[in-house]
């Protein structure tokens, strides 16, 4: 029995030429990596990058311009690239390889400890010097390619969803934040650095704990020594997570960050869009997700606390905060946080979430307590090795190699769903203290499954929609695609009253018999 | 001594419990694992400990029939059509049996299958759904001629696609337009024969129907109004090679889609004592002419018509409501089928359609239609209201999503059309940042009134 047909000819002639153009740009970069020396770097870099951008945009134009505005998922599960076929594996392995080299062997990209860079990194020197005045690094190369991916594939996404203004505005937003906040502004800020004044590289929208290194000693030192601006930036970094984030998440849900601002989200929504349906929708995956993502959050909290704790003692004249008061502060804050959640929301929390919260609180307090009472130099572990482990496991392997490298295999939001501690923080807020929900339109759901299939976070949207329940899930990034692909107009992303946001009782509109009423009567 | 007394007492208690449990534990057998049967099963399980067996020859697990088209178009895989993971059924103690029921011995309360042991039941729910209509056309049984209702139809369509460059679809309804959309994604030329003067104009008011007709044509479908099939012509291999219209035009095709409606799937009951007409006749409690036998969903026919509804309703939503209702009856709360305000939905290529309340193709006595259409030809509404009292009767909305909850309320409160149009914004369910048209619609209504 065969239920999957042959793919219709999915690529037209123009798309083929566009692909060729884009790939030729990549080949120039590859040749540069192989130390082919290009005579005029500015010219060849421009040719390479413009070919890539032009190729992607042309491909999109050729794919969508002749079509009606509307959902464009024809053949998604037939195509090799979007159905874990040969092309998908090829792309996945190449991307993964790129990340491994980028993170662990940048010398192969041409990074040199001493002297001028060579190869690919040297090819990017003209652009880097233009922006910051400094020669390029592997991170500059990565940042440039990342920004190109978001903007060029962003244009593709805009074309694909041109009938949907929510999707369009959201995409303009991620394109803007990537190009300005993540790419250009930090480069320009680097220009300000000079004698006695130096700011760390700071992407202002990259908030701790996603930006897990934001409060490391070298950065804090630089912030402090840069005077008022530096202090302001440091305070902004703290306010971002403790003040700005809760307010915006309360009003709009975590989407304001995850699918409107965040760079990881930006890449997932644009370059990763063709793979959104590959996310695992099983209940098992959901269970794994909750444990893993919250464990990462615990990890980052412990790690950051340990790191900050370790340098606070170094120089009492420099930091007004003492080690002890910092630790006590962290302990009090976490305790108050959990007590608050427990007091206000214990009825809404499912059992395992409760166990999780309590368990984690105990772990954190135990770690802190252990140190505090035993007086050992550091926690159970050495702070620096904790930081290095986190950077390696979470920062590099999880978010980069697996999270992005395996887009074509596991889907585009693996990192956001299973790994991102920022998403975990925002998710808790969204689940417990937010006006955001996806509203279900009465009894109109036909259980078709488009919403669940195209949910990049692996939420079984249909399970809620077919019962007429609102969708209030901590993992939902508010991309709006479930609503877009729904053929019957059942789903709507909304910010409304926090009351009655979660309607747990089952009953589908259109049925005059209220079964719950009946059950209640029966049990009386 | 003490111990034996205790154990005797214990045995007595247990046997009593067992007897009680027997009474509680009936074997409810459901034929058909579509939305009606499965909804019944789920709700019975929620509210009781009865033994539940669901029988289907069509598929191992419940799937969303309305989404068959998306598998063919490559939007989804078969597994995505299943609203519940496979472990769900065992966990909820709903037994699934894959078999075709051949005959029912109502006397002995026994089901006979095309193969294997018979199955006894205490209560029987028949939820066998629909099959597509054939009207005795010459050539209707040729290879390459088919409808699209079941999983098997989808498999057959996939097989037929390999032979197909051109297709003809007969009958302008919801399945017809879906099939047209499906075939277009495989680059098959589609000719769409519709008896009416505009697509689905036996259900939609003419301006709505014409807008949809234009939209279908804009997708490259050769839509022929006022055209009926005469016969289907065969090639040497017994495959369809062309259709002949009643005007005598021959249209080449390798696939003929029979989409001229569906009918209850009750042929296997033909010679039984169960009372049937178009479908299995049921009363308002969904009880058939035989005790302990019930029918729900597409295959049921109401003896007494409810409101302005049809006696056979082949709609996803009504099937679900019947399943829920019957579950009440079978678990101790005898409940009449009261489906509430009519609603339905569909999608015609890119245009979504929702309807709440009654909008007839032609206004009935004392009824009037207000129609508004956006210049794009992709959005429109038609509101039906009482021309004497101005009471709002129903709305068709195209390309603008509307809230069922709000219209349900307005219908229940017998609101007037003025109120509906003045508050239309409340009912808007489009995604954020979409263009809104409430003001334009309101203005258009005011202008209409002045002209009238």
Structural class of chain A: mainly alpha
- CATH superfamily assignment of the largest domain in chain B? FAD/NAD(P)-binding domain
Rg over CA atoms of chain B: 25 Å
In whole angstroms, how far apart are the ends of chain B?
Answer: 97 Å
- The low-pLDDT segments of chain A are 512-524
Find the structural class of chain B using helix and strand composition: alpha/beta
Mean pLDDT of chain A: 87
Q: What number is the mean pLDDT of chain B?
A: 94
Order of strands across the main sheet of chain A: 1-2
Terminal Cα span of chain A? 52 Å
Shape of chain B: globular
CATH architecture of the largest domain in chain B: 3-Layer(bba) Sandwich
What would the principal axes of the Cα set say about the shape of chain A? globular
- Record the strand order, biggest sheet of chain B: 3-2-1-7-19
Strand percent estimate of chain B: 25-35%
The helical percent of chain B reads: 25-40%
Give me the number of helical elements of chain B. Answer: 12
Strand count, sense and closure of the main sheet of chain B?
A: 5 strands, parallel
Textual characterization of the structure:
The complex is a heterodimer of chains A (524) and B (452). Chain A has 524 residues and is mostly helical. Helix content of chain A is 60%, strand content 2%. Chain A has 22 helices and 2 strands. Chain B is an alpha/beta fold and 452 residues long. Chain B folds into 3 domains: 2-131 and 263-330, FAD/NAD(P)-binding domain, CATH 3.50.50.60; 145-260, FAD/NAD(P)-binding domain, CATH 3.50.50; 343-451, Enolase-like, domain 1. In chain B, 29% of the residues lie in helices and 25% in strands. In chain B, the strands form 7 sheets. Chain B has a 5-stranded parallel β-sheet with strand order 3-2-1-7-19. A 5-stranded parallel β-sheet of chain B has the order 9-16-10-11-12, with helices on one face. Chain B has a 5-stranded antiparallel β-sheet with strand order 21-22-25-24-23, sandwiched between helices. In chain B, strand 11, helix 7 (206-218) and strand 12 form a beta-alpha-beta unit. In chain B, helix 2 runs parallel beside helix 8 (316-330). The radius of gyration of chain B is 25 Å and the shape is globular. The interface between A and B is large, with 62 and 66 residues.
């Amino acid at each position: 029995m065969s239920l999957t047909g042959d793919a219709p000819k999915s690529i037209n002639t123009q798309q083929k030429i566009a692909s060729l153009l884009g790939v030729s740009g990549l080949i120039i970069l590859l040749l540069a990596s192989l130390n082919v020396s290009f005579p005029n770097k500015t010219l060849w870099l421009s040719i390479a990058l413009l070919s890539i951008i032009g190729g992607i945009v042309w491909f999109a134009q050729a794919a969508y311009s002749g079509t009606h505005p509307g959902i464009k998922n024809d053949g998604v599960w037939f195509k090799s690239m979007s159905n874990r076929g040969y092309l998908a594996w090829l792309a996945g392995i190449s991307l993964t390889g790129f990340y491994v080299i980028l993170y662990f062997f940048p010398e192969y990209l041409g990074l040199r400890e001493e002297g001028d860079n060579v190869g690919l990194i040297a090819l990017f020197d003209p652009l880097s010097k233009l922006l910051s005045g400094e020669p390029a690094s592997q991170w500059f190369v990565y940042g440039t390619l990342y920004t190109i991916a978001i903007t060029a594939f962003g244009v593709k996404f805009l074309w694909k969803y041109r009938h949907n203004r929510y999707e369009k505005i959201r995409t303009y937003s991620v394109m803007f934040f990537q190009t300005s906040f993540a790419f250009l502004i930090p480069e320009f800020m680097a220009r300000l650095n000079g004698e006695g004044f130096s700011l760390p590289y700071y992407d202002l929208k990259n908030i701790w704990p996603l930006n897990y290194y934001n409060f490391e000693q070298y950065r804090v030192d630089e912030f402090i020594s840069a005077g008022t601006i530096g202090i302001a930036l440091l305070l902004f970094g703290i306010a971002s997570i403790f003040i700005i984030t809760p307010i915006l998440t309360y009003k709009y849900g975590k989407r304001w960050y995850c699918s409107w601002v965040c760079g990881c989200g930006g890449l997932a929504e644009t370059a990763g869009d063709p793979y959104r349906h590959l996310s695992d929708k099983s209940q098992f995956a959901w269970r794994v997700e909750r444990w893993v993502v919250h464990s990462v959050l615990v990890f980052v909290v412990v790690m950051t606390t340990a790191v900050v704790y370790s340098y606070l003692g170094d120089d009492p004249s420099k930091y007004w905060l003492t080690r002890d008061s910092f630790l006590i502060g962290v302990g009090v804050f976490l305790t108050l946080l959990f007590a608050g959640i427990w007091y206000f929301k214990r009825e809404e929390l499912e059992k395992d979430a409760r166990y999780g919260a309590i368990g984690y609180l105990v772990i954190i307090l135990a770690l802190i307590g252990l140190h505090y009472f035993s007086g050992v130099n550091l926690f159970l572990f050495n702070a620096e090795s904790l930081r290095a482990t986190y950077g390696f496991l979470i920062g590099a392997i999880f978010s980069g190699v697996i999270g992005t490298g395996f887009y074509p295999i596991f889907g585009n939001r693996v990192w956001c769903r299973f790994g991102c501690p920022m998403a975990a923080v925002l998710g808790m807020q969204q689940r417990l203290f937010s006006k955001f929900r996806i509203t279900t339109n009465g009894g109109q759901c036909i259980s078709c499954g488009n919403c669940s299939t195209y949910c990049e976070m692996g939420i079984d949207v249909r399970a809620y929609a077919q019962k007429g329940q609102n969708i209030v899930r901590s993992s939902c990034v508010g991309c709006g695609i479930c609503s877009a692909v729904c053929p019957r107009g059942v789903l709507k992303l909304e910010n409304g009253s926090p009351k009655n946001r979660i309607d747990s009782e089952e009953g589908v509109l259109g049925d005059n018999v209220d079964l719950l009423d009946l059950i209640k009567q029966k049990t009386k | 001594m003490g111990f034996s007394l205790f154990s005797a007492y214990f045995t007595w208690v247990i046997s009593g419990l067992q007897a009680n449990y027997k009474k509680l534990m009936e074997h409810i057998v459901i034929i058909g694992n579509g939305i009606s049967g499965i909804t019944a099963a789920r709700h019975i399980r929620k509210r009781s400990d009865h033994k539940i067996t669901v029988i289907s020859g069509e598929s191992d697990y419940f799937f969303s029939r309305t989404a068959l088209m998306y598998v063919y178009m490559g939007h989804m895989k078969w597994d995505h059509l299943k609203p519940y993971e496979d472990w769900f059924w065992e966990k909820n103690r709903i037994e699934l049996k894959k078999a075709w029921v051949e005959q029912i011995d109502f006397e002995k309360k026994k089901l006979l299958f095309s193969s294997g042991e018979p199955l006894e039941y205490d209560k029987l729910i028949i939820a066998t759904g629909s099959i597509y209509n054939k009207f005795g056309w010459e050539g209707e049984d040729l290879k390459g001629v088919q409808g699209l209702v079941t999983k098997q139809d989808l498999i057959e369509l996939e097989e037929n696609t390999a032979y197909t460059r051109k297709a003809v679809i007969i009958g302008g309804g919801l399945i017809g337009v879906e099939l047209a959309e499906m075939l277009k994604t495989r680059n098959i030329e589609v000719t769409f024969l519709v008896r009416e003067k505009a697509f689905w104009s036996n259900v939609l008011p003419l301006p709505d129907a014409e807008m949809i007709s234009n939209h279908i044509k804009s997708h490259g479908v050769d839509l022929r109004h006022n055209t009926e099939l005469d016969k289907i012509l065969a090639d040497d291999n017994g495959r369809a090679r062309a259709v002949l219209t009643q005007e005598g035009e021959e249209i080449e095709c390798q696939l003929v889609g029979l989409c001229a409606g569906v009918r209850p799937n009750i042929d296997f009951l033909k010679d039984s004592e169960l009372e049937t007409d178009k479908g299995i006749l049921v009363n308002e409690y969904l009880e058939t002419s035989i005790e302990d036998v019930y029918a729900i969903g597409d295959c049921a026919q109401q003896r007494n018509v409810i409101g302005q509804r049809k006696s056979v309703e082949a709609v996803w939503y009504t099937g679900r409501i019947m399943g829920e209702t019957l579950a009440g009856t079978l678990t101790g709360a005898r409940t009449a089928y009261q489906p509430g305000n009519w609603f339905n939905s569909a999608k015609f290529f890119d245009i979504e359609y929702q309807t709440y309340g009654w909008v007839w193709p032609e206004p009935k006595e004392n009824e009037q239609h207000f129609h508004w259409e956006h210049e794009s030809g992709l959005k429109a509404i038609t509101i039906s209201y009482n021309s004497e009292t101005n009471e709002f009767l129903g709305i068709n909305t195209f390309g603008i999503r509307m809230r069922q909850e709000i219209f349900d309320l307005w219908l229940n409160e017998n609101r007037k059309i003025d109120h509906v149009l003045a508050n239309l914004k409340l009912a808007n369910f489009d995604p954020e940042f979409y263009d809104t048209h409430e003001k334009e619609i309101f203005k258009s209504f005011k202008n209409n009134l002045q002209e009238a």
